[in-house]
Amino acid sequence: MAVHRRLLSTFRQSDEVLQALSSGRSSNNLKMGIVGMPNIGKSSLFNILTSSSVPAANYPFCTIDPSESRVAVPDERMDWLVNHVQPDNTVHAHLTVMDIAGLVRGAAKGEGLGNAFLANIAAVDGIFHLVRAFKDTNITHVENSVDPLRDAEIIDLELRLKDADQLAALIAKSESKSTSRSLNGAAIDKDLLKHVHNLLTTSTNPLACEPWTLEEAKALSQLRLLSLKPVVHLVNLSEEDYLSSLNGGGEPAVITALKSGAGANLSVDGNAQVVGYSGAIEGLLADMENDEERLEVIEDIKKSYGVANFKSAVPSIVWAGYHAVGLTHYFTYGKVEVRAWTLRKGSKAPQAAAVIHSDFEKNFIAAEVMRFEDLKELGSEEAVRAAGKYVTRGKDALIGDGDIVNFRIGKKKA
Ligand SMILES: Nc1nc2c(ncn2[C@@H]2O[C@H](COP(=O)(O)OP(=O)(O)O)[C@@H](O)[C@H]2O)c(=O)[nH]1
Ligand SMILES: [Mg+2]
């Protein structure tokens, strides 16, 4: 099945093709959906992400609806900037996360309201594919046993089958017209549709690992297939396994299996992302009222279990999702506000300015940019300027991770 088969896959897609396959919506407000079987800790993880990555009041977040929330992206560089400038206001970067109801075997055929839940997955830009590795006889499992690789395979298969259905419908339509089917304005070759349908139904190799040409990849991305969405695998481990992995016990076997298995799976940087955590421990931390109490619990865990380097997995989870959907941020800073502005990787200066205000794109004059590392190393903006490292850049400059930017904006003469 899917996961085991992936172990055999050694094919590496070019970055260009990977990028074309993953180019989805043009928005900066991209969403990661938590997907998996029922009763494996999805909603618990959603609650953990919306509360514990948001320590103290200066991390703004908002629950958009009960199953959708903006999660602050923790960033030590932000903390440094805030400490450096002591601004009145601080705004972190964010990632939108959705809690999606559990899928069961047969979901693509409508089992367990599968169709409605699969439609929710179609609406997100990337998938946190969660599997349960913790054993707890009080928490039933729909398959009656805890087997994270089997669960991953069931979910993979349902996503593929749903895509296959969509393709079958498109093929039928295009055959009735005996021309290429036009989708979102661009024609998609019928043979390509058939080829993809065939792959989805007869092979378990991830679609992202097939040797696509750039043209094919561009056409495929228009289909918005579920099985082409960027995936971060998350493993809800037992407390013991999580603590032991931090304490020199090595990587839990399930994580190793998912990593090598998903090694060629689609993610923005082409590397499989697998993050393990303990829902029980993170839940405990998330329940604390404030940072002080949280630190107390962390100290307690370090002492009681002898895990001196204990850390929460939440920042790794949020960052993995943020990277998977291709987001990054730059900073603006001043006495009034230190702020991280979320944008897509690879954005140029005018698009980066548009994140602040849509008018800024057309009225863009220049971007004054310094690197966070330079500010930190040299200690002040004056020192960065004196070192010639505060540079003025034009409309073709790429703006992204770790840039501190001041935009020059002005009304252009008509
Ligand atoms: N023992 C244990 N129970 C957990 C863990 N994570 C979640 N649960 C419990 O498992 C049950 C199902 O969790 P929930 O988050 O609602 O699962 P979902 O159906 O996937 O959304 C709840 O009773 C949770 O308290 C964990 O890490 N360890
Ligand atoms: Mg749930």
TrEMBL record:
What is the protein's species of origin?
A: Chytriomyces confervae
Which GO molecular function annotations are given, in alphabetical order?
ATP binding; ATP hydrolysis activity; GTP binding; ligase activity; metal ion binding
Q: Report what the protein is called.
A: Threonine---tRNA ligase
Quote the cellular component terms of the Gene Ontology held in the record. Answer: cytoplasm
Q: What residue stretches are annotated with the OBG-type G domain? A: 30-297
The TGS domain extends over: 326-409
Per its UniProt record, what Pfam families does this chain match?
MMR_HSR1, YchF-GTPase_C
Keyword entries, A-Z: ATP-binding, Ligase, Metal-binding, Nucleotide-binding
